[in-house]
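Annex B. Sample input.
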Amino acid sequence: MSVMIWLINQGRQIEKNNVARSGQSVALRRVSMSMPLIATCMMTGCASGTPPTPTPLPPMYPASLLVKCPTLPMATSGKLVDLINNHIDVAERYHDCASTHNNLVDLIHDR
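Annex B, continued. Sample output.
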């Protein structure tokens, strides 16, 4: 702001000096006085740009949905009872993991 006041005062001094010159018109004197002020205003307009857009924060997901699926167990022997028990255990782990994965996918699609 103080620069603009200084420029206005400089313009007034120029106008006073130009009053002594009778060859210039009043309009020309006013134009020569306002040129520094116009230039200052134009330069301050370039200095204030638009602020940078903030980067969005990464989405936060519940920790319970970010757990890897457990490894599936292998059958301990070739007996039919062990194979059936292993199959039941694998099926339970698969469905638990699929449920967690589906909940995560639903959460991502809802956002």
